Each structure stands twice: as structure tokens, then as C-alpha cells.
Fold:
Amino acid sequence: MLTLRFDTLGLQPGERLLDLGCGAGRHAFEAAKRGAVVVALDTSLADLKEVRDLFALIGQAGELPAGAAGTVANADALRLPFPDGAFDRVVASEVMEHIPADRAAAAELARVLRPGGTLAVTVPSWLPERICWALSDEYHAPHVPGGHVRIYTRTALERRLLDAGLEIVGHHRAHGLHSAYWWLRCAVGTTVEDHPAVRAYHRLLVWDIERAPVLTRLADHVLSPVLGKSLVVYARKPEPGFGR
Structure:
């Protein structure tokens, strides 16, 4: 299940892409299958092992185009172990809301992006996230270690990227069907995964992802602009002298 749009990001075969906070690797794998040279970065060694192993499997299965590759890196978002301008594209999906020093994180993302390159940052959308926080203290920090530390408006997220020297080139919301699932999780308790309603809704989401039926795809398309669980903002790093 992808949150960002790679066509909007502008990814081309052979380009270098950093997936910051890669988690299970959904965006990293898609980028590699599109021909990119991908670095999947996370602080979780367990996640990185699974991503590394899956990169090896899809490579052995011949699912990667010529020139594509995927590697993993264990590092902190505030101290990225890469030189300035190391990547053509950068993805940071559902990461910034976990980082107290988000200004410093945005500066690091901008630093490793080459001039003329583009970046996609996704965070939980303001309204769905506000409802989750109201329903459950288990959902966010400081009540849960590693939880969400802030709720972004689009203006606030764009300001962080602008302050890092980037220019905003687009935005959209995604996953309109997922907000209600998380409201339900928060209402019954985020650690209660065996609740019948939670299980039923989860089956619906899995069915939608695997089968993409017209009815649920249409519902997601209609709901996403207003109730989409994720906000995606795209930004570009200006080239020297650009616009002068």
C-alpha cells in the first residue's frame, strides 16, 4: 500500500533514492522495482533485516530492472551518514510526527537531496489525527514511547520544508478508508487487536489492498481529500541561481 505518488515525485530509472524511516520497506521496494538505486534507512534493526532479506529475494526472482539495487542503513534522521546532495529523490513517510527536533530533521533531508531533486514527506492528516488523540492517550507521546509528538497542519509541515530551503511543488491526502479504522482502534484501545469490529475492518482493508474492487477504490477516492489518513507534501531543492 503506497502513500506517495512516484510519478509526482518524478523518480526515474537509475536515480538514487533515500527512504528515511523505511519500516517494512513498501516505498523502498516500489522505488527499486521502478529502477532506482535505493537506500532504505531506519533505526529498527529488525525491520532493516527483513527489508534486506526481501531485497535479496526480489533480486533473485528477477523483479528488479537492470541497474536497480537496494541496500539498508541504520542511522538517526538527525545525523544522516551521507554527503551533501547524495540523493536524487528522498522519501520520509510517517516519520516526522515522531521526531521532536523536526526542524533539524527537515534540514538533514534537504542537505542530502541534490539541487533540482525532489522530496516527498508524509504525515498523519490534521483532522483524523486530532480525533485519534482525543479518543486515546495510548496513541501518542508522552503516554507511549515512540508515539506521535505533534499533529501537523499542511501549513506547518510546508513551513518546516520551506525553512529548510526547499520549495513546495504539490500536496494531496491518501488512505480515506483508513481513518475510521484508527478511530475504531483508539476507541477500543490501541493494544486490543482481537476486538471483533477491529478484525472485521482490518479484513476490509486487506481485501481492498489485495483486490482493489471498484466500490472501495471509489470510496477511498471520494474520502481521501477530506478524511485521508495521510497528508503528502512534495518539495524541490532549488538549483544554484534558480529563479534569479
